[in-house]
Design a protein that fits this description.
Helix content: 25-40%
CATH architecture: Alpha-Beta Barrel
Number of strands: 10
Oligomer: single chain
Distance between the termini: 15 Å
Structural class: alpha/beta
Shape: globular
Number of helices: 6
């Protein structure tokens, strides 16, 4: 079970997460987000990070050509789409894509079958925001056949790790707001405690 830490806006948080064992870190390029970061700043941060940590750019309803330009310039490795993007949009994007779906109690999981060209991230639905809300959805609703293939997001705290690892076993988890001091700034102690618990859980302690 891999870990992506999202909503990174500064080099200190990025290096802390990398040093503690994050598999991926995410930068949000959606200007309405409280965790928005400009591409020029991301470019400078990425130059100072380890090569084997995956750098993810998060976009919301952005034009594919804009995404391709930003990802090339900043040297990102993956694209995460968190809006109403179509499978056709994904075909035009140069990098591998994670497509996020915001899940409410009535979500139709068969919609995922329309997307053959990407990985899936499942997050909680919020009418006002596209992510980073700290809300959970009903994890029990995730179909068994996709549990180990998805990236799980939405209000994940260190207290949830044991249950997630035991009952869902997703390919990865995506955390952001639960590790923050305020939007866009990580709480160093929360981050350290989260990774400590993660290591205990995956080692069966």
């Amino acid at each position: 079970m891999k870990i992506k830490v999202c909503g990174i806006t500064n080099i200190e948080d990025a290096q802390l997460c990398c040093n503690l064992g994050a598999d991926a870190i995410g930068f949000i390029f959606y200007e309405k987000s409280k965790r928005y970061i400009a591409p020029e700043k991301v470019k400078k941060i990425i130059k100072q990070l380890p090569p084997f940590v995956i750098k993810v750019g998060v976009f919301v309803n952005e034009k594919p050509e804009v995404i391709n330009r930003i990802t090339k310039d900043t040297k990102l490795n993956l694209v995460q789409l968190h809006g109403e993007e179509t499978a056709g949009d994904i075909d035009i994007i140069d990098l591998p894509v994670i497509k996020a779906f915001r899940i409410n109690d009535n979500f139709d999981f068969s919609l995922l079958s329309n997307y053959k060209n990407c990985s899936f991230l499942l997050d909680a639905f919020d009418i006002n925001e596209y992510g980073g809300t700290g809300k959970k959805f009903l994890w029990n609703n995730i179909p068994n056949e996709i549990k180990n293939k998805i990236i799980l997001a939405g209000g994940i705290k260190k207290e949830d790790l044991r249950l997630i690892f035991r009952d869902i076993k997703p390919y990865a988890i995506d955390v952001s707001s639960s590790l923050e001091l305020k939007p866009g700034e990580k709480d160093k102690e929360k981050v350290k405690l989260f990774f400590d618990e993660y290591i205990r859980v995956i080692n069966g302690k």
